[in-house]
Amino acid sequence: MSHLAVCPGSYDPVTNGHVDVVRRATTLFDEVIVAVLANPGKAGLFSLAERMDLLQASLAELPGVRVDGVEGGLLVDYARSVGASALVKGLRSGSDFGYELPMALMNRHLTGIETVFLPGDPAFEHVSSSLIKEVAAYGGDVRGLVPAPVLPRLLEKVGRPLSS
Ligand code: PNS
């Protein structure tokens, strides 16, 4: 029997920390869907279509990975509709665990689906989409923290386009 994992998130934009978690999920599951959802608590910089484009470009080398967008609705309904065996999330810190645990328990309460937590690589412990956007907007160097296709699009979005 083939096992499918869903890696859900807002991916606004995808970071190298996300790519690491998705890559490691591919070693545990036969197939991985990276599902881009709206987080009602976060205003987005990139549109859903842009986030999906950036994910596709950033994950192109990984076998068995698909990118999908979910426009509204519950994550668990989406996970059930694609026949997912589990949700996979990366954890950078104790505060991530505090944020993720209620969602994992709620998702299990709703449908029984389990969440598998992967410890984030310490190299990316300080890397979040929110910090990346803030640092880039104030002119900080985020090279090496986001996949190559993301950098020019991010700098353009925050009004600091790469000089040629
Ligand atoms: O990358 P994020 O922003 O931490 O991801 C959070 C996300 C998008 C996975 C979460 O907000 C979510 O699952 N949203 C979809 C709506 C939903 O199912 N909400 C109930 C969660 S228990």
Mean pLDDT: 96
Distinct small molecules: 4'-phosphopantetheine
Strand order in the sheet with the most strands: 3-2-1-4-5
> Radius of gyration, rounded?
15 Å
Q: Can you count the beta strands? A: 5
Low-confidence stretches: none
Specify the number of helices: 6
Distance between the termini: 50 Å
How would you explain this protein's 3D organization?
The chain is of the alpha/beta class. It has helices spanning 16-26, 48-59, 75-81, 94-111, 129-137, 150-157, and strands at residues 4-9, 31-37, 65-70, 86-91, 114-119. It has a five-stranded parallel beta sheet with strand order 3-2-1-4-5, sandwiched between helices. The longest helix has 18 residues, at 94-111. The termini are far apart. The relative contact order is 0.20. The mean pLDDT is 96.
